[in-house]
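Q: what sequence does this backbone want?
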């Protein structure tokens, strides 16, 4: 599976991931003390939705954002507050990039989603292995304060950056899943992270292409003897759908207090707004309960 960020910018998985990321940032900010936001697979930082996505063989891909952020862009009033805030953030990014008249032309990656929310006492560390994306990312944040960009493998970044001086961190692991070994790499990265900063809040994004693979990942994760961990998933179609990726999930280690309630409240809204076929829905629960 190829999940390079530009190919899928603004799709249903981005909407899901970025809304929950905003909830996690707000959860971290319930405490006055600053924290580090670490993005292990940061991509380019932001994306021009009008640019065609060209595959290595020269074929072009159909854009995915119309079925993602496009469905919410002109949504009527009355959305839950977190979705209203999310749309406002995307509009702010569009204006920053030069779009006019509330045009949906640009979409922020997770680095900008987080940056727009961080306080003066918070800071960011961004890792990106691809040289072209890392260069673009460095350019995007060259004038921003309290942001460091490193052109390194994100799993190496976990060892290079943690533990931070703040002793508090929100880590996003959002890999491209270009390798069949990605789930195993995630588990190794989490093992390293837990050794260095056991209390880190960590969100791991994963695709749900086959239910069995997600369940295998959950079982293997439990072998790490992890701290309290909550998971949230949405599906945009049922198991009989021909879609390659029917859903996605977020595994959250050490979730902030009561964040599970906030996430559970928004999941059905996201699933309903982004569904494309029968069988869409959401699920969530504690893989490792709070003590």
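A:
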């Amino acid at each position: 599976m190829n999940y390079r960020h530009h190919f899928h910018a603004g799709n249903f998985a981005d909407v899901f991931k970025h809304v929950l990321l905003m909830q996690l940032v707000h959860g971290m900010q319930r405490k006055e003390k600053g924290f580090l936001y670490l993005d292990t697979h940061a991509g380019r930082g932001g994306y021009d939705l009008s640019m065609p996505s060209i595959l290595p063989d020269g074929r072009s891909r159909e854009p995915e954002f119309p079925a993602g952020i496009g469905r919410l862009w002109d949504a009527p009033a009355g959305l839950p507050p977190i979705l209203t805030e999310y749309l406002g953030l995307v509009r702010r990014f569009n204006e920053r990039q030069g779009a006019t008249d509330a045009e949906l032309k640009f979409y922020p990656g997770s680095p900008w989603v987080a940056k727009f929310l961080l306080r003066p006492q918070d800071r960011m560390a961004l890792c990106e292995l691809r040289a072209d994306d890392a260069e673009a990312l460095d350019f995007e944040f060259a004038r921003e304060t309290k942001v460091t960009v490193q052109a390194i493998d994100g799993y190496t970044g976990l060892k290079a950056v943690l533990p931070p001086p703040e002793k508090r961190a929100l880590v996003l692991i959002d890999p491209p899943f270009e390798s069949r070994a990605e789930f195993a790499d995630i588990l190794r990265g989490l093992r390293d992270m837990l050794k260095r900063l056991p209390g880190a809040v960590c969100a791991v994004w994963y695709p749900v292409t086959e239910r069995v693979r997600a369940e295998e990942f959950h079982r293997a994760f439990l072998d790490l003897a992890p701290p309290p961990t909550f998971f949230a998933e949405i599906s945009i179609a049922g198991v009989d759908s021909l879609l390659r990726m029917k859903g996605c999930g977020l595994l959250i280690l050490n979730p902030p207090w009561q964040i599970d309630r906030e996430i559970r409240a928004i999941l059905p809204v996201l699933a309903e707004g982004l569904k494309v076929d029968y069988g869409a829905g959401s699920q969530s629960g504690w893989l490792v309960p709070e003590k």
